[in-house]
Amino acid sequence: MENAAQIGLFGAAGAAGRSIAHALSTAGRSYRVIGRGRQALQASFGHDPLAEVFTWNPDDPASIAAAASGLQTAVYLVGVPYHQFEQHPLLMQKTLDGLRAAGVQRLVLIGTVYPYGRARNMPVTESHPREPHTFKGKMRLAQENLVIDAHGHDGLETLVLRLPDFYGPGVERSLLHGVFEGAAQGTRAQMIGPIDVPHEFVFMPDVGPVVERLSRTPEAFGRVLHLAGAGTITQRDIAERAYALAQREPKRMVANKTMLRIMGLFDPLLREMVEMHYLLTDPVVLDDSALTRLIGPVGKTSYEAGIAQSLTAAQRAVRQAGGAQAA
User: Fold this and answer.
1) Mean pLDDT in order along the chain per 10 residues (327 residues)
2) DSSP label at 153?
3) Residue 2: what pLDDT?
4) CA 141 to CA 158: how far, in whole Å?
5) pLDDT score for 268
6) What is the phi/psi pair of residue 297, to 5°?
7) Separation of alpha carbons 204 and 166, rounded Å
8) How many helices (H) and strands (E) does the chain have?
């Protein structure tokens, strides 16, 4: 079958999956989107004739191998609940076994800064020690090590691409989601402080073109690479810009670490965020010069443009919600 997908996105239903799928489609490449629920995948990708929708059960070896059948490259984007990070290495091992069984040749893991722990110097290059002091960092480290150690065995080549915190239009699982939602609704932005420390965010639509390029760059495999954001900015600055664009006065509700602990008594997600709070007081800022040396200049959306696009998407969501309620 000439148009058969050669690249598959495992855990495609999230923001990163949508970004990578869009880049693949723009490049005219057929791709397979793999997730637990067909309905969500169909809603996001069913309109694209280049997309092949496939469901899987990541706990079932036969299901993993079937989802990977015929693929040359797998991109791993599988998320787990924030309070179940011990699943990361377990699911990664099962997926690696399934990829090998299916004869997949390349694997790209989209990773995070969690395995580094506290930054010893800035910006952080790929040679920085990986010494996480948090449980989540240790689980992500174990996941990464499985992928790194798999390179060169059983015909599989692997690559880890680490990203900082991300944001973008319709990206709900972002530290900044409450800012755009608040600016769009005219309510208080729900934020986690401190909000005056320079932080790095990658604009999610910028991720897809990089992954698409790396997936067809043989010399990228057997490595760990960084994709950095468009410099640093404070959360306060982002909020002020978003509310100004919405022609509203900024309103904020900022939770500090102590408040997170208290709110965590009632909200498991917030409780799990306490141990990662160090990334707000001492952010990890990435150096991605190795990536640009490998593939050339990387397109990065300015914060000004990214904030505007994210706010527009949030305003559209508010209008749609209002229309649905009226109906």
Assistant:
1) 79 96 98 96 97 96 96 97 95 97 98 98 97 98 98 97 97 95 97 97 98 98 98 98 97 94 87 94 97 97 98 96 67
2) B
3) 43
4) 15
5) 81
6) -55, 140
7) 6
8) 13, 12
pLDDT at residue 325, as a whole number? 63
Q: Which residues pair with 111 in a beta bridge?
A: 162
Long-range contacts, 171-175 (Cβ 8 Å, 24+): 171/15, 171/204, 171/310, 172/15, 173/14, 173/15, 174/15, 175/201, 175/235
pLDDT of residue 284: 97
7-166+202-226: what CATH class? alpha beta
The answer to whether the beta carbons of residues 34 and 12 sit under 8 Å apart is yes
Give the residue extent of every domain in the chain: 7-166+202-226, 171-199+234-283+303-322
Backbone angles phi, psi at 286, to 5 degrees: -90, 145
d(CA 156, CA 147) in angstroms, rounded, equals: 10
* The pLDDT of residue 1: 36
d(CA 189, CA 249): 11
Kind of pairing, strands 157-162 and 51-55? unpaired
